[in-house]
Amino acid sequence: MTPSYLPKLLAITLLLPALLSPNAQQPDPAAAQRDVESLLAQAQGQVDPAGTNLMLQADTRAEAMARNNEGGCCGTRCIRIQPQPVTFNIQAQPLTFKWMEFQGNEVYLHDILKTIIFRHRGTPLGARILADYLTTTRCFLPATEWMPEFRAVLDILNLPEWRNSTEPALLRVRAESYETWWSLSIAPKSDPNIEANQINITDFKPGAQAARQSAIAAYRILAAQLPKDQDIRTHLRNLIAARDTTQRNWFCFAAD
Questions:
Q1: Quick one: which of 31, 109, 26 has its CA closest to 65?
Q2: What's the pTM value of the predicted model, to 2 decimals?
C-alpha cells in the first residue's frame, strides 16, 4: 500500500528544479508599478466605494514594488506615481520604501492607505483603514524615532477627527495602546525585552494609571460591541483587577 504522503512528496520533488532554476519567475517591481499606475488611473473620477476599492487594490499591489537591493538616501526610496491623464486637480501619489537590513529587502510603507485616510477623515471607513494602516506599518511611524510607539499612535487617535470614534478596529488599537503604556510601567526588570533593550520602566509611570482607566473604558465599549470576543473580556478583567496583561503590541523593541 502506497503511503498517503508519497504523491505530495513526488509532486514537490518534480517541482523543485523549476523552483530552483535561475529562470524561475521572480518578483517584477516594474510590472507591479504599471499595475499600480493603472489602478490609480482607474480610481480617478470613480465614486465610492468603487474608487476606494481600486485604491486599496493599488496599495496591496504596491507591496510587490519593493526591491531586494538597497536604494535611495539612507535606505529610504520614494517615487511618485502620476495617474494619466494628468489634470490640474490630480496629485501625484508618493510611494515610500524602507530598506530592512536584517531582512535584506525593502518594505512598502502604504502611502496609498494614508491618502484614503485623509480623504475619509472622521468617517467609519476612514477609521477602519486607519486601524489597518497603523497595524500594517507598526514601528515605521516617523514619530517613533522620538517617542514610544504607543504615544505616537495615541497622538493620532486623540486628534479631533478620531478621538470619538467607536469603530471596533480603531477602538481596539486605542485600548491596546493605553494598555501597553500601563503594562510597561509595571513590567519587572527581569522581563527579557526590558533587560535586552535597556529600558527604564520609570519613564512610563507618569500617566500610567490614567492610561489603565482609558484602556478599561475602550475595552468596555468593545465588549459591548463584540460580546462573544473572549480575548477582549480577558483583557478587561485583568485591567480592572490591575493585573499585568504583558501587552506589548504598541511598543517597538530593538528586534522589531
A1: 31
A2: 0.82
Question: What would the pLDDT profile of 84-122 be if each residue is shown by its tens digit?
Answer: 555 444 568 999 999 888 778 899 999 999 999 999 999
Query: Do 234 and 136 share a structural domain?
Result: yes
Does the pLDDT of residue 18 top 50, yes or no? no
Regarding whether 125 and 38 lie in a shared domain, the answer is: no
For residue 254, tell me if it sits in a domain.
Answer: no
H helical segments located in 21-49:
29-43
Same domain, yes or no: 138 and 237: yes
Strands (E), the chain: 76-81, 93-100, 105-108
Sign of CA dihedral 247, 251, 255, 256: positive
Provide the residue range defining the domain that includes 208.
121-248
Specify whether 138 is located in the same domain as 81.
no
Euclidean distance between CA atoms 144 and 148, whole angstroms: 6
pLDDT tens-digit series, residues 69-87: 877 667 788 999 876 555 4
Q: What whole-number distance in Å separates Cα of residue 53 and Cα of residue 59?
A: 10
Cell numbers found for residue 93:
501619489
Given 77, 94, 119, the domain boundary residue is 119
Nearest residue to 64 via CA among 108, 129, 109, 20: 108
pLDDT of residue 133 exceeding 90, the answer is: yes
